[in-house]
Amino acid sequence: MNLLLDPFEYAFFERALIAAVLVGALTGALGPFVIVRRMAYIGQGLSQSVLGGVGVALVYGAGLSSGAAAAALVAIVAIYVVRRRGVPVDTAIGIVASTMFAAGVAVISSNRDRSLNISNLLFGNILGVDRDDLILVSVVVVFTGVVLAVFYKPLLAVTHNAAVASAHGVRSGLIEAMFHLLLGLAVVTALQVLGVLLVAATLLLPAATASLAWRSFGQLTAASIAIGVVIGVVGLYISYYRDIASGPAIVLTGAAVFAVVAIAAPNRFRHGRNPI
Amino acid sequence: MTTTIELSGVEVRFGNVIPLSGIDLRVEAGELVGIVGPSGAGKTTLLRLLLGEITPSSGQMTMGSARTRGRRSVGYVPQLEASERTFPLTVRGAVLLGAAATSARVPWFSRAEKAAADRALERLGIADLATRGLHELSGGQFQRVLFARALVSEPDLVLLDEPTSGIDLATRAEMLTLVGDLAADGLTVVMTTHDLNWVASHLPRIVCLNQTVRADGTPHDVLRPDVLAATFGADMAVIDHDGRPVVVDIAALVAGAR
Q1: How far apart are the C-alpha atoms of B112 and B245, rounded to whole Å?
Q2: Terminal CA-to-CA distance of chain A, rounded, Å?
């Protein structure tokens, strides 16, 4: 029992645990929509774009959070615009992410006189989460939860087949824009906990694990949220006791859970087994 | 008889490209109509027009029943796509998505909507598959699910895009019987097809399309060498088999004989 309670002697652990639970639920809820759209690269692309944007914001004296949010918004709009030109989604993400990342590095490298510490942004710093961060994460989680609950069915219809959803009266363009906005918010929110380099994994691992064992999208989403929360909590404890960074601890826990389920789950639920 | 679709002198223009021009088409409620034409003839553009995805650049278009009483009354069955079938959904879940636009803004479907989905599955003869995963279905079963999804909102008009492509001969015959039964129940069905013998010759009415309407009538009226040459730009012979016209692609036969 002490093993579980000892870390709570430190106030930062309690805040970190709440943050890990909230971020795990947030990325767990959005992850299923990401993997069934074959958009696994979106998390990586958005976080890379955000890194570039944050670099620019820091050089010009803007705040980290505002820079990250603005960069995520610019990236989402740019990906949407490039896709509208008929470019495949993975290519669009790659183009925008590389361009924004390069722009950030270019601006940073041309301002060598300023010392920029972006290591927290790269690797996350969950132990540095303060009360204001928790409030921000909570607001984003509640907002995302409400939007997903209200638009769950149209979003699922658009994710399944946007053309058919449009034909049946769903405003697919608006739903797509809303989903990308939620993704951008989730990535920016999760950066503090996991860092740019690892945030994409938390969008994928819980959902990919759940997809091995559940065939209904509703069950898959619920399982993905639960897995996201569990690996966040377990990863944080491992981080505390093994004295390793929280982001890698959470991602490695998620990868281990995925490996176990992948070995144990029956093949019949796996995707892509029945070409038409 | 109520008119479901009425197009008069309709033109669709995308920049300098004019996929459809001078389209005159009238479809009455309960009709079963096949749109035939070669690739690039404008079949998909015509479907998109009827779905309201694009608007005519000129001409008059009236959809008699679309969006009546606040409910969507057009159902759409797309071509089979492998990605749709690998989606983690049960059959009932997939069918219910046809009602997503009009459903209440809560994450679950109402009992009435689930009952409507079960009725659609029953109508398609696949009620026993309701709890199966989509990935467990055969091509023919999945095609029926797509059909059930189009019917769940109880539309007056159903549009089918090449419903028989990618499925085997037995399933194709089942699909033809199915659309015939639905039309007999009063549903208006418009489908595109490139299959002149298996599909088109079994439909009561065929519209030959190649940028404009080249011919419109029964298979006997329309499946004629002169009409087919104007529509497909190829020499085709038509022979009679048990009272049905059968189209023979002469160029393909000659090439095969060499």
Answers
A1: 45
A2: 53
**10-residue block means of pLDDT along chain A (276 residues)?**
80 90 95 87 83 78 78 88 85 90 81 62 77 91 96 95 90 91 88 77 92 87 96 92 87 95 71 40
Identify the CA nearest to A155 among candidates B133, B105, B80.
B105
Q: Do B100 and A38 touch (CB under 8 A)?
A: no
Please report residues of B whose CB lies closer than 8 A to that of A160. 84, 87, 89, 94, 97
Give the mean model confidence (pLDDT) for residues B11-34: 93
- Asked if pLDDT for residue B96 goes beyond 50, the answer is yes
Task: Collect all residues with Cβ–Cβ distance below 8 Å to B103 and sequence separation of at least 6.
Answer: A153, B96, B109, B110, B113
Nearest residue in chain B measured CA to CA from A163: B78
Question: Which chain B residues have a beta carbon less than 8 Å from that of A153?
Answer: 96-97, 100, 103, 107, 109
What pLDDT is attached to residue A144? 96
Q: Can you state the angle between helices A172-194 and A199-211, rounded to 10 degrees?
A: 120
> In chain B, what are the domains?
3-257 (3.40.50.300)
Interface ipTM? 0.83
Q: Which residues of B touch A274 (CB under 8 A)?
A: 85-86, 135-137
Q: What is the pairing mode between strands B74-77 and B212-217?
A: unpaired
**Closest Cα in chain A to B47:** A167
Q: Pick left, alpha or beta for residue B230 (phi over 0 → left; psi -120 to 50 → alpha; otherwise beta).
A: alpha
Alpha carbon distance B162, B176 (integer Å): 12
> pLDDT per residue over B212-237, tens digit each?
999 999 988 898 899 888 888 888 88
Q: How many CA atoms lie within 13 A of A36 on its CB side?
A: 30
